[in-house]
Structure prediction request, 303 residues.
Amino acid sequence: MSKLVAAFVLVGFFLYTNPVMAEMTSTNYQIRWDSLTEGGSDTSVSENYGIHDSVGGAAQGNSTSANYQTDSGYRLGAFDQVITFDPLLEDSSAGVSVTSRSGTTVFTAQTAGLSTGEAVVLVQDHGVAQISAIGKITSISSGVSIVVDSWSDNGTTPTIDGINDFLYPMNSSSITLGELSKTSVVTAVIGYEVTADLDNGYSVQVMADGGLTTGSHTITDVSDGSVTATSEEYGGRSSDTSIATSTFDTQDTAFSTSFQDITTESTAKYKDRHFLTLKAAASDTTPSGNYSQALTIVASGNF
Prediction:
């Protein structure tokens, strides 16, 4: 008799940051705030940079009302948000088969459901040994191909030969592992994009509310470093291969009710993308049921 073992994971994303003063820096110099002698002030931005410019300064002082304050003269420090955190969750129900890849172009006979500007995850050999990369779509040729801005992976970009290779949109609100199998490993990808205008970079951490559970039964946490078929196991692995404070970078790792690092960066980053691959498998003795878990993922600046 076949058994239905379905699993999903609710994911909550949070951003922690302290207000700090905006500044311009290079390898050898630092400008806390810029000010010239004539004109006004404004904020200028491009795809990769932003600058707060200010001209004027002959008169100094401030004017206030019940709700506003204007400071004239040398520009005062701007308390800007210096870290952003955008979740990217795989929609495993909307994947399309892909036939090949050339650089940032992926060829597929089906592009319906994909939209310019949305994030996607490219998967080579879907399953326990899959190789994944995430990017954002810049253009679509209907029924032929999609082009992304760049691929973010774990150091190895997927090689696509059309056999068990897929492209999934990353626009879901929760992660669905689907029906767990006793003959294969099911997977799902949680991605995120971080911009951190901080000299010491940022960290992303994950914490679970408990195990992957239904009723009184919990899927066994992976303990040998690898989720394998025919064994009841569950865990995750990060695309960041240089984490010094956890094992998510080198092996499939169990989730804990305490925060664990899944990404760490030590320098300022712009639109930096990483992902966490969830893996689960059932055995002959795994009870039927709808299994669930809540993961909390937090990004914080390294101040």
